[in-house]
Write a structure and sequence with these properties.
Layout lengths: L10 H12 L29 H15 L5
């Protein structure tokens, strides 16, 4: 369980994952190769928006597979 592992994820996500597991849900945390400027939750935080197309495609395909359609 995520509650038992310190894997360095966002505290927001790790809290969500712990709550989801209480109800038997599964969760996953993904990071993509975007060069992040600044630390999360800081004024300097920025990421390369060009990576968003890859991320959207990944999640769209994952949703299609989950729903049983790989068109």
């Amino acid at each position: 369980s995520y509650a038992e592992k310190n894997f360095g994820a966002s505290e927001d996500f790790s809290n969500l994952a712990v709550e989801a597991e209480k109800y038997g849900a599964k969760s996953a945390y993904f990071t993509f190769g975007s060069a992040v400027k600044g630390v999360h939750h800081s004024p300097e935080f920025d990421f390369d928006e060009d990576t968003m197309a890859l991320e959207l495609e990944f999640f769209a395909r994952a949703a299609q597979r989950f729903m049983g359609s790989e068109d």
